């Protein structure tokens, strides 16, 4: 099937198409003009409005407490994504299992932690000591090996990691399940015929092919959990948002401090997006259309 270029050329009878001029498209030029006017208006609004207080933004952009909050945000997002991926992978495998009770438990897990808002879960885990004053490890209905005070164990950091990880595990389980389900069943049959055990089939045959489908939504989910860490400020977690809140509660410079937070969120998200694009290209090698590869 042949491809047709978007640029339509107009050639007179007997004229070479290669030297023909492109057709004038006034709607496209009008769209570009409107964009230019809106962009100029936005720039003037940002520059002329003194209430943005750009000098205050520059003053606090690299403030020590702000940078510490940014580091906490990034570390918290990485921890939540790592634990969420581990748990989500197990839940996805249970969903694809032929053992019905495992599928029921996995379905309940996804429905529970995906159905309750993350903010509610964070507050619940932060107040876990109300239900369990003592956290213990032992044999059910048997001896206890160790016991700890719940108020000591459930800190804002612990509650944030638990809450965000469980939320992410539900979403990532669905992403992993969809990715593994997109692999041709014949690949599993061929691996089984060659004597591969189920675990080796999953790790060496199915998962490498599923990554092409898993990486884009998983990368987007990582960006979502990074932005979702702003919710931990309600449990007094010193993340990026909480750090700027502490400053503007003291100086009453709300808009400039929020601009500082927006700047660093955009920087980190842009870096993560670039990494996601690189992973997408890496795992999509051999799957892109021929025309795309030639154009590159």
Automatic annotation (TrEMBL):
SUPFAM superfamilies for this protein: MetI-like
Record field: transmembrane: 29-47, 67-94, 106-133, 153-173, 230-248, 254-275
Main localization, broad class: membrane
Subcellular location as annotated: Cell membrane
InterPro entries: AA_ABC_transptr_permease_3TM, ArtM/GltK/GlnP/TcyL/YhdX-like, MetI-like, MetI-like_sf
GO BP annotations, alphabetical order: amino acid transport
Gene Ontology cellular-component terms listed: ATP-binding cassette (ABC) transporter complex
Bilayer topology: Multi-pass membrane protein
Family under the similarity heading: Belongs to the binding-protein-dependent transport system permease family.
Protein name: Polar amino acid transport system permease protein
Species annotation: Amycolatopsis sacchari
């Amino acid at each position: 099937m042949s491809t047709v270029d978007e640029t339509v050329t107009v050639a007179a009878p007997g004229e070479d198409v290669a030297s023909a001029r492109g057709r004038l498209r006034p709607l496209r030029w009008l769209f570009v003009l409107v964009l230019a006017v809106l962009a100029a208006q936005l720039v003037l609004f940002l520059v002329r409005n003194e209430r943005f207080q750009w000098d205050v933004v520059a003053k606090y952009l690299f403030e020590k407490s702000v940078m510490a909050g940014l580091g906490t945000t990034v570390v918290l997002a990485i921890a939540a994504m790592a634990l969420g991926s581990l748990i989500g992978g197990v839940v996805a495998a249970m969903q694809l299992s032929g053992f019905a009770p495992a599928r029921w438990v996995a379905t309940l897990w996804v429905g529970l932690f995906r159905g309750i808002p993350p903010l509610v879960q964070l507050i619940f885990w932060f107040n876990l000591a109300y239900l369990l004053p003592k956290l213990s490890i032992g044999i059910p209905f048997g001896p206890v090996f160790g016991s700890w005070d719940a108020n000591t164990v459930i800190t804002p950091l612990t509650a944030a990691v638990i809450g965000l990880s469980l939320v992410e595990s539900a979403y990532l389980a669905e992403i992993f399940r969809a990715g593994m389900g997109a692999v041709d069943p014949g690949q599993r049959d061929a691996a089984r015929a060659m004597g591969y055990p189920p675990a080796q089939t999953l790790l060496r045959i199915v998962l490498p092919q599923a990554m092409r489908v898993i990486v884009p939504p998983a990368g987007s989910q990582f960006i979502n959990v990074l932005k979702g860490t702003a919710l931990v400020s309600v449990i007094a977690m010193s993340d990026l948002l909480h750090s700027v809140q502490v400053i503007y509660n003291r100086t009453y410079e709300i808009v400039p401090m929020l601009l500082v937070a927006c700047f660093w969120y955009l920087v980190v998200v842009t870096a993560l997006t670039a990494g996601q694009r690189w992973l997408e290209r890496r795992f999509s090698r051999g799957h892109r259309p021929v025309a795309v590869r030639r154009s590159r």
